[in-house]
Design brief:
This protein is an alpha+beta fold and 316 residues long. It has 7 helices and 16 strands. It has a single domain, classed as B-lactam Antibiotic, Isopenicillin N Synthase, Chain (Jelly Rolls), CATH 2.60.120.330. It is 26% helix and 22% strand. An 8-stranded mixed sheet has the order 1-2-12-9-14-7-6-3. It is globular, with a radius of gyration of 19 Å.
């Protein structure tokens, strides 16, 4: 597939929402309406006034750059394991069943919340860390703590946008399988094919993602007409995009939108927080209950996705 890399892509379709009231737990109805419209029409929106200190973000950005600058042999000592934690090597291949879905021109590093290990919850942890990585560990732990109120505020706002009972979503996230990931995209000069871009078109499998991106740009989302629309970084804002659970919870009302990354310059860094529910969360439509829809358990769904998307991890 030939890729048009010359377009100057508009991004007016991606709204910016002041999320401060949601983080404070006292959401303005106009904010809820804006979020609802964005979730239906776009599946993406920016959040400003989110309460995450800029120094926490910048510290993790700096630590990510230092980590990815390590020699490859050091990083590969901590390759992603069957807990879906650790280093994801550059140019990993992703599969859907037996069909090769392509190569991503990025490397990553994953951690998650650490829960007491349990045979009934095989992905609970612990995290694994490279040697001499105390500052990286502190920066990632600080980022997880700093974004917790934002994630919870968004969950509460989604409940209001759907007009469902308070706690309908929140109770599914009291032991979340959320993952924090560092991404590094090595320099590329104007890729000409989707086989060569940073991340091939995809949707996220979980509930929603909170993304910080550096000033390189490159994130693009696919609108309902099939056109690719730029979502460049906005200072002191995060990008929020809905994952594949949202259409299930909303009977298809909220959109999980395909997106991709094209790195057209030097090193690019991003930090996605994949907000995912508990392993034992029962996933079904929240807005229209039906006896014909048995739903599914999130843990098995998540493991099946990770087995296909990241075969290197050998998920049990």
């Amino acid at each position: 597939m030939t890729l048009d890399v010359r377009r100057s892509l508009a991004f007016s379709e991606v709204p910016v929402i002041d999320i401060s009231s949601a983080v404070a737990g006292d959401t303005d109805p106009t904010i809820i309406e804006s979020m609802r419209d964005a979730c239906i029409d776009v599946g993406f929106f920016y959040v400003s006034n989110h309460g995450v200190p800029s120094d926490v973000v910048e510290q993790l950005h700096s630590e990510a750059a230092r980590y990815f600058a390590r020699p490859m042999y050091e990083k590969e000592r901590c390759v992603v394991n069957d807990q879906m934690r650790g280093y994801l090597p550059l140019f990993f291949r992703s599969f859907e069943g037996e069909v090769d879905a392509g190569t991503s021109h990025q490397e990553g590093f994953w951690i998650g919340y650490e829960h007491p290990p349990s045979s009934a919850r095989p992905l609970d942890g612990p995290n694994q860390w490279p040697e001499n990585a105390e500052s990286l560990r502190h920066a990632m732990d600080d980022y997880l703590a700093a974004t917790k109120a934002l994630a919870l505020g968004l969950i509460g706002a989604f409940e209001q946008a759907l007009n469902v009972a308070s706690g309908s979503l929140g109770e599914l996230f009291d032991r979340p399988t959320t993952r924090l990931k560092l991404n590094h995209y090595p320099p590329q000069e104007n890729p000409t094919s989707e086989d060569d871009i940073g991340v091939i078109p995809h949707t996220d499998a979980g509930a929603f993602t909170i993304l910080w991106q550096d000033d390189s740009g490159g994130l693009e989302i696919q609108n309902k007409d099939g056109a690719w629309v730029g979502a460049p970084p906005i200072e002191n804002s995060f990008v929020v995009n809905l994952g594949n659970l949202m259409p299930t919870w909303t009977n298809g009302l909220f959109a999980s939108t395909p997106h991709r990354v094209i790195n057209r310059g030097g090193d690019r860094y991003s930090i996605p927080l994949f907000v995912n529910p508990n392993q034992d969360a029962h996933i079904c439509c929240l807005t229209e209950k039906s006896s014909s829809d048995p739903g599914f358990l999130y843990g098995e769904y998540q493991r099946n996705h990770w087995r296909r998307a990241f075969p290197i991890a050998n998920i049990p």
